[in-house]
Amino acid sequence: MEIAKKMINLTIDGKNVSVVEGSSILDAARKIDIDIPTLCFLKEINEVGNCRMCLVEIDGVKGYKTSCVYPAEEGMNVKTNTKDLIETKREILQLILSAHDKKCLSCVRNTNCTLQDLCKKFEIEDYDYDGEMPEAILDDASECIVRNTAKCILCGRCVSVCKNVQGVSAISVMNRGYKSRVGVALGMSIKKSTCVGCGQCIIHCPVGALTEKSNVKQLKEALVDPKKHVVIQTAPSVRASIGEEFGMPIGSLVTGKMVTSLRKMGFDKIFDTDLGADITIMEEATEFISRLKNGGTLPMITSCSSGWITFAEKFYPDQLKDLSTVKSPMEILGTLIKTYYADKMNIDPKDIYSVALMPCSAKKAEIIREELKLDNGLQAVDNVVTTREMARLLKESNIDLAMCEDSEFDAPLGIATGAGHIFGATGGVMEAALRSVSYLLDGTEIGKVEFKSVIGNNNIKEADIEIAGKIHKIAVVQGLLSVSKVLDEIKNGTSKYSFIEAMTCPGGCVNGGGQPLVDEYKASKIDYKALRTKALYNADKEAEFKKSHENPSVKELYKNFLGEPNGKKSHELLHTKYNKQDTYVD
Amino acid sequence: MQKTSKELRDIRAKTKLIFEKTRIMICCGTGCTSSKSDKILEELQKKSKELGANVIVEKTGCFGFCAKGPIIVIEPDQTFYEMVNIEDSEEIIKAVMNGTKVERLMPEEDDKFIQKWHELNFYKKQKRLALRNCGYINPEDIDEYIAVDGYLALEKVLTGMSSDKVINEVIKSGIRGRGGAGFPTGKKWQFTSSAQNDIKYVCCNADEGDPGAFMDRSILEGDPHSVIEAMAIAGFAIGSNQGYIYVRAEYPIAVQRLNIAIKQATEYGLLGTNILSTNFDFNIELRLGAGAFVCGEETALMNSIEGKRGEPRPRPPFPAFKGLFGKPTLLNNVETYANICQIILNGGDWYAKVGTESSKGTKVFALGGNINNVGLVEVPMGTTLREIVFDIGGGIPEGKNFKAAQTGGPSGGCIPTEHLDIPIDYESLTSIGSMMGSGGLIVMDDSKCMVNIAKFFLEFTVDESCGKCPTCRIGTKRMLEILTRITEGKGKIEDIERLEKLSKVMKSASLCGLGQTASNPVMSTLRYFREEYIDHIENKRCATGQCKTLTKVLIDPEKCKQCGICQKNCPYNAIKGEVRKGPFEIDQSKCVKCKVCITKCPFKAINN
Which residue of A298, A438, B49, B361 shows the fewest CB atoms closer than 10 Å? Predict the structure, then answer.
């Protein structure tokens, strides 16, 4: 039985509040809906007191204290809004603004910027200081991430997320004082670093210092090019998030509206990546069975999360054999578009412009991988657009997704199952695989599997399953730092697992680096990842088919085009190779 | 080689005998070494051998009178030789052999040779507790340290005191942290002792970063064992077995002597396991800092020891509960430790007799700037600034007047003439807008521009801010920009208010002491020399001529004798004219106001 934690009673702005021992003053304030401003705070990730915006006055304590890290104590009397505190914070904002590139109107974060919000809140009407600006370094060499130091306010969130959540540490604060900046070792571009492109830094940046590399211009050109047949596929998680960009509540499932809005944009065909996910399951489950039967490398680790692949290639090149060789759902669908679909429609694949609407910035690098090029040298996917980018594009074209009617994906690559839908959340890939693996092996079914967190790490969940009379331990892991822990176990021979789902981003694709931004305060109140996940599971519930192997399109594809799962043709088209990637090499 | 208490007693008794012999002690601290005292030492040893002199020639630590270096003191009669050259070596040895003195090397005061070094005005008002062994023993010989009752305090603690009793003596002594903030040392020990953890650490802050300060360096160079012994005592008191000394890599001699001292102490079993046959273990490791000023801040220092970026962490948690590697950690400054053994041996009450009501003991200051006796001084708390500057420091050179003294380094403030009689203690200094700091004391004469001084210190903090919080990172930068504007005659009267506003937010909202105090030099000069700021802003004038943009060097055509000396000496070819063909003239577009011409003109025809 868990021992009841001691409660601490304190007063904040005259209101009494009771919190468990160990809570911060900020925790306590938020509990009673007092919104103390923050710029740098990220619960359990970046608790460093950098930005000074959360300062409070505590009776009997000398000087102002950062409420984000100051522990709540019994009988404490805290004030968050004295005249002097407000004046102090206004002055801090003035200082931050004096070193910030204030091109708000052209900034991608305009109207969606924590700094801007605070300036409004504190009624900043004019800029009090001018002076030398910090060195402006624009690093846009990466396919995924663009860094602009001129906009950086050095809150440290990106550095902490990259290190403490992803274990990647591609960026760090370098130099000192006013010359401090977030940068990459040896002054290199982030492209050459250990960066995996996941974009967790982007979604935690309070300002516009980090953005995804935009390829929207090329997309626009393709859309108006009469010679191009422009098709788009949409990832599972986007239907559970893109509504937010159009004022809909978090967790709105907008599949039909999304399809209609894309059709209005002028895409010739709208396909569903979830079908790619179903095929992934067919291939991956078959591969797993074959590894089980033939004594292949175990554990097998899923391979659909693009950042994770790069992570493995950069950090664990000796363990690439553990990865499933199946391409990601996006690449599978992209491949089918330029082969099966092109054949069927009698279109030269060269004339197809294949777009993928993804929750992810890492996918932007995935599409140019040599290993994924088709036989004819073409990329399977020509352009990846994130959820945020697509929302901006739709708005630019005066399309209000929220007002769109529902419509269906296009044939022949538009039918998916619930298994495909839940790919967008952590644990979804594993669940989808489990729905099919026993059926494909011996026609049986594994019932509901209960996962339990590993002690001390909620990001690693494990379960026991029975396959062909044998108990196997399987794991679902999110966040690359946790993934690396599992990989280390495999490396030193202590891993208990047979099958592992590895997701780059905490929460999975619903929280991908290309997803709509949820401000930190809001995120502390609403579990947006859970709401988006719930939407995907609702889609699963409503789906006519729940299991990948039941998908009629899947059956049709294997019957008329691919042959057997893991057969010769599907191996040629749907599987790939991994290679070590060097870092910090000029 | 581990020594028992008895063996230590024997070493003590045996080595004490050498103090009765004739010893030629030469300072081999950083200051005198820069004047080649190490070479003089070799030469003295060589000559002594050649001439068959029955003397000991040894290196020792800093005597403090750095302006007169290299310094030699001949014990036991305390003869003081100043500004010794390598060529003087033979004469010195011969004089010692003949029982005479080399008068030309002896200091003179009031037309009299001063026979013993303690009789010099420079030393009369000093009380050397922390520096007690500097200049008396060879810092590289543990036996000599043992002979001056070294490691006796540790023995006393380990063989007869409880940890509470040790802490109690430190509390009774009233000693406060010598690193700057002045937190009561005993209380700190008590907190760390009370923290529950299997692993605790004792750290020594030897990251002395104030410009011009060298108190800690001198102690480490002159008496490293006193710090090591005190750390072991602290380890016993708080329940720690591991110490770290965080010392700047720019202090090579201190690092070398610390290494020697740690090695010797380990060989004697005074560090290591089962120290003095008790069950107390204690080890010390050195960690070299790269010279960032902010790493003198306790939490930044711990980050740096851990191998992380040297930036401060928010407190709480305080280091006493969660410090180095997340464990309870005691951190004291070098000078604080240097007092501990004396406190243990003589009792807290004995120590508390020195000093003032709230500030006990002595304080070491590094006296620098426009002062005759540049050097290291140790005075009882409560000594006035006037005594330090004029009685000990010998006043202001070149017949100029005292204008201000800066204590506390870049975090301190400028103290004007009107406060010369303030007794030096923690509270008094804070009350006049400065602070004790670690002991830098920079004297400024009346040729100094106070706006320019404030700018100088801001330049330092801008360079040394770690960049973590915006109030310090951006605040110091903006402050410096405003000051620069003012010194260039581009200031506006609103800038003064702006500086005050900025100072307020930096003080109240910065994460660590560096940012919180960075504006002190500006605020204290604004407080005491406001008219200078206004003069710069409204009249575009710098009365001292130090703000170069505001000064014009001009040749008075009436006084110019057309000799051309100024032109010959101008490094920038900024002086127009020909010899005997009319007065010379300065091309203001080329002049950088180096003022070489002013010093060279035989007719005093050039002024600024």
Answer: B49
Q: Select from B294, B464, B477 the residue whose CB has the most chain A CBs within 10 Å, as the one to mutate to test that interface.
A: B477
Query: In the structure encoding, which two tokens stand for residue B589, read together?
Result: 């577009």
pTM: 0.93
Identified catalytic residue from A91, A135, A221, A371: A371
A284 belongs to the catalytic site: yes
Checking if the pLDDT of A1 tops 60, the result is no
Distance spanning both ends of chain B, measured CA to CA: 69
Q: Tell whether the model's pLDDT for residue B67 goes beyond 90.
A: yes
* Backbone φ, ψ for residue B393 (5° rounding): -75, -10
Domains contained in chain B, CATH given: 14-118 (3.40.30.10), 149-352 (3.40.50.11540), 362-445 (3.10.20.600), 450-538 (1.20.1440.230), 552-607 (3.30.70.20)
Backbone torsions φ then ψ of A145, nearest 5 degrees: -125, 135
> Catalytic residue at A287?
yes
CA distance B319 to chain A (A): 15
Task: Please write the tens of the pLDDT for every residue from B454-493.
Answer: 999 999 999 999 999 999 999 999 999 999 999 999 999 9
CB contact (8 A) between residue A96 and residue B474: yes
In chain B, % of residues over pLDDT 90:
89
- Residue A343, CA distances (Å) to A339, A346, A349, A521 in order: 6, 5, 8, 51
Sheet containing A77-79: give its strands across: A15-20, A7-12, A77-79, A55-58, A65-66
Assign A9 a pLDDT band (cuts: 50, 70, 90).
very high
Return the percentage of chain A with pLDDT > 90, whole number. Answer: 94
Question: How confident is the model at residue A435, as a pLDDT?
Answer: 93
Tell whether B475 is within 8 A of chain A (Cβ). yes
Burial degree of A434 (CB within 10 A; 0-12, 13-18, 19+): buried
CB contact under 8 A, B313 and A48: yes
φ/ψ of A213, rounded to 5, equals -70, 125
Q: Is A321 exposed, middle or buried (0-12, 13-18, 19+ CB in 10 A)?
A: exposed
Given A131, A173, A175, which is nearest B477 (Cβ)? A131
Instruction: List Cβ neighbours of B342 (8 Å cut-off, separation of 6 or more).
Output: B129, B132, B153, B351
The rounded distance, in Å, linking the Cα atoms of B508 and B496 is 19
Determine the residue among B504, B508, B514, B519 to mutate to test chain A binding: the one whose Cβ has the most chain A Cβ atoms within 10 Å: B508
Residue A407 bears catalytic tag: no
Backbone angles phi, psi at A310, to 5 degrees: -60, -40
Inter-chain contact B465–A178, Cβ cutoff 8 Å? yes
Chain B partners within 8 Å of A88 (Cβ): 504-505, 508-509
Of B469, B475, B505, Cβ closest to residue A50: B469
Return contacts of B9-15, CB within 8 angstroms, 24+ apart: B11/B143, B11/B146, B11/B147, B12/B146, B12/B147, B12/B149, B12/B152, B14/B143, B15/B143, B15/B144, B15/B146, B15/B147
What is the complex's ipTM, to 2 decimals?
A: 0.94
What pLDDT does residue A447 have?
A: 82
How far away is chain B from the Cα of A310, in angstroms, using its nearest Cα?
27
For residue A70, the chain B residues in CB contact (below 8 A) are 314, 316
- To the nearest whole Å, the CA of A61 is away from the closest chain B CA by 12
Q: Which residue has the tokens 């540490």?
A: A169
Say yes or no to pLDDT of A172 above 80. Answer: yes
Cβ contact A176–B465 (<8 Å): yes
Residues of A in contact with B478 (CB under 8 A): 95, 98, 129, 131
Active site residue A363: yes
Domains of chain A: 7-81 (3.10.20.740), 94-212 (3.30.70.20), 217-574 (3.40.50.1780)
Give the whole-angstrom CA distance, residue B122 versus residue B68: 11
